[in-house]
From TrEMBL:
<dbReference type="InterPro" id="IPR051888">
    <property type="entry name" value="UPF0148_domain"/>
</dbReference>
<feature type="compositionally biased region" description="Pro residues">
    <location>
        <begin position="53"/>
        <end position="72"/>
    </location>
</feature>
<dbReference type="InterPro" id="IPR009563">
    <property type="entry name" value="SSSCA1"/>
</dbReference>
<feature type="region of interest" description="Disordered">
    <location>
        <begin position="51"/>
        <end position="79"/>
    </location>
</feature>
<dbReference type="Pfam" id="PF06677">
    <property type="entry name" value="Auto_anti-p27"/>
</dbReference>
<protein>
    <recommendedName>
        <fullName>Sjogrens syndrome scleroderma autoantigen 1</fullName>
    </recommendedName>
</protein>
Length: 124
């Protein structure tokens, strides 16, 4: 789920009368909400529905001798890198405003993971 989608979901709960709390979800880091008498994360259940784990891809065929393997689709790598970069930027913006050291550390670890993923994609 993108940050914009998460913002829309949270705005929808506010419009429905939900109350954003000063506590964050320990899984996704977004604020918890009090809605219909329950404290809940409104992002995690949707993220699980929207972004199922991808099916493992079958192994690439072994190239025939004398031929080089086909390169990975650069447009897919570019899209993945762009999404990771947007996520890193969003996390950094959240770090700037975060007052709790433990939450800052969690967000900084997520930024580090994103940077490692970019490096694996060959992006810097």
């Amino acid at each position: 789920m993108t940050a914009d989608q998460a913002d829309e979901v949270m705005a929808g709960y506010l419009l429905k009368g939900g109350k954003m709390l000063a506590k964050s979800c320990k899984v996704c880091g977004y604020p918890l909400f009090e809605y219909k008498g329950e404290t809940q994360c409104v992002i995690c259940p949707l993220a699980a529905q929207i972004e199922p784990l991808p099916e493992p891809e079958p192994p690439a065929p072994t190239p025939k001798p004398g031929r080089s393997p086909a390169p990975a689709a650069p447009e897919m790598q570019g899209e993945a890198a762009a999404e990771i970069e947007r996520t890193i930027i969003h996390l950094c913006e959240r770090i700037r405003g975060e007052q709790r050291p433990d939450e800052c550390l969690t967000l900084m670890r997520a930024v580090e993971r994103g940077a490692r993923a970019l490096a694996r994609l060959g992006q810097r």
